Amino acid sequence: xxTTRPEEAHHVKKGSYIMLKGCPCKIVDVKTSxxxxxxxxxxxxxxxxxxxxxxxxxxxxxxxILGAFxxxxxxxxxxxxxxxxxxxxxxxxxxNNTQLPFDKADEVHGKLFEGFATGxxxxxxxxxxxxxxxxxxxxxxxxxxxxxxxxN
Length: 152
What we know:
Layout (H helix, E strand, L loop, with lengths): L4 E4 L8 E4 L2 E10 L9 E8 L5 E7 L3 E4 L3 E11 L4 E5 L5 E5 L5 H11 L4 E10 L5 E11 L5
């Protein structure tokens, strides 16, 4: 299954998801110059990595093919945090379990750990996107969480 699909640089729009320098980015700015002496417009594309929040920038001729992708966000219930082994155990709505790396030094993970330790039910939103230049592989990251709301 392909994780990316082709998209020409001059078709890239603000808000779309494109691979820049092997990183999955949400595009925040696109500037296209007029055609020059040799007949090619240049596209200056700036994006923010959806997994690390780092800024990426690339300049391409408008006819160059880039990799577009669909961002996947899925909500899980946190079932366990193993601080010593360094993983978070999550369960989806169907009851399937999955694990993600845990780093208490990370701001989001640290706050999640504090919330989970109080005994409240925590819901984690996991973002999945392709990573890599030649053969992108899907990678997931826990970037946000919340307490489950209880209706009384």
